[in-house]
Structures are given as structure tokens and as C-alpha cells.
Amino acid sequence: MIEPFGDDYFMKKAFAEAVQAFDEGEIPVGAVVVANNKIIARAHNLTETLNDVTAHAEMQAITAAANLLGGKYLNDCTLYVTLEPCAMCAGALGWAQVGRIVYGASDPKRGFRKFAPEALHPKTEIVGGVLETECGELLQEFFRNKR
Description:
alpha/beta
């Protein structure tokens, strides 16, 4: 059973965004930003749609959450994202001072832990591997279909 307002619950919401990206022909990464057990921003990759290499799910979610809150810092928020953030996104998450990051699948080729392990704010809590199998399988299916 999924605990109400637990990590699995919110990761399933991020996963739904990833499925939407998949359906739109985007790399299937989804994200939600949560504050006080409420989703305040939802996003998925839009790099193909916007023809913008910076339009990652995390970047879209950070912008939407900051706009809603009226400030650039998200220290009381948790970002749920289906794939470990890249170095670019980790830098933005660091500048936004996101309080907590929960990700699904690891990204050993392009993830921040390989290229920029110190990019996040020092107080940011990181949790990896939530719904890792589902998140990873969706990505694998997407790239299998592309090849």
C-alpha cells in the first residue's frame, strides 16, 4: 500500500508526468515539486517540443514552483524526479536551495553524482532509488523504440 503523502505517492505523480513526456515523444522524465504535502508544480521534459536543450523536467518544475511561491528559493520544498538530475539541473537545484530531492532511476552516464557531486546546496537531502525499476524501465522502453 502506498503511504499517503509519502515518497512513493509523490514519485508516482512524477512518473505520470514521465509517461506524458513518453506519449509526446520526449525523453520520459517527469518531476513534481511538493510543499507542505501539496504538489505546487508539475513538469516533464520539453526539449523537443520547445527545441531547447535546457527544458528538462527539473528546470520546468523549478520555474513553475518559484513563480507560484513568488521567490527563487525552494528550501521548504521537495523535488521528485524520475531520473537522477544532470549537472545542469543539479546546479539550478543548488541555486534554488531545494530542501530535498528524491529521484527514481540513477543516471551513471550523465547524472550529477558523476559530474557535479557538489553542485547541490549543502543542506539538501538526497534520496535515490524510489520506484527505480518503473522509472528505469520507462526510459529503457523509450530508447529501445528509438533505435
